[in-house]
Structure formats: C-alpha cells, structure tokens
C-alpha cells in the first residue's frame, strides 16, 4: 500500500474491515468505515487516532 500511495499521493485508502484498521492507518490510510464503531463507539475511538 505504501508503494501505491507514493505513486498516487491523491489516492485515499480507507479500511472497511475492523481487523485491519490499525494496519491501514499505520501505513498511510486516510480513514476507516467501521461496523464496530456503531456498536461500541467509545472503544473504537480509543483504538483509532
């Protein structure tokens, strides 16, 4: 993903899978779409910047 983002800085990558949210964000992802956030918003807020 980091190679793709270095070639396409205008591309925004979002995670749609709660299991890989941190990895996506840690590697330059722009955000997440989360099912867990709808059920446990306070917990999800603590785990994502």
Please describe what this structure looks like.
This protein has a two-stranded parallel sheet. The mean pLDDT is 87. The protein contains 4 helices and 2 strands; from the N terminus they run αβαβαα. It is mostly helical and 49 residues long. The chain starts with a helix and ends with a helix. The protein has one domain. β1, α2 (21-26) and β2 (31-32) form a beta-alpha-beta unit.
Sheet-strand content, in percent, reads: 5-15%
- Tally of DSSP β-strands: 2
Cα-atom radius of gyration: 12 Å
Which strand order do you get reading across the main beta sheet?
1-2
* Integer count of domains: 1
Total helices: the number is 4
Low-confidence stretches: none
Largest sheet composition: 2 strands, parallel
Rounded mean pLDDT score: 87
> What class, by secondary structure content?
mainly alpha
Shape descriptor = elongated
Question: Helical proportion?
Answer: 40-55%
Looking at the chains present, what oligomeric state does this protein adopt?
A: single chain
Termini, distance in Å?
Answer: 19 Å
Order of helices and strands: HEHEHH
A few lines on this structure:
The protein contains 4 helices and 2 strands. With 49 residues, the protein is mostly helical. The chain has one domain.
């Amino acid at each position: 993903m980091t190679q793709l983002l270095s070639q396409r800085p205008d591309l925004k990558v979002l995670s749609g899978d709660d299991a890989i949210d941190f990895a996506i964000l840690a590697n330059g992802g722009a955000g997440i779409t989360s099912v867990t956030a709808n059920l446990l918003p306070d917990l999800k807020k603590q785990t994502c910047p």
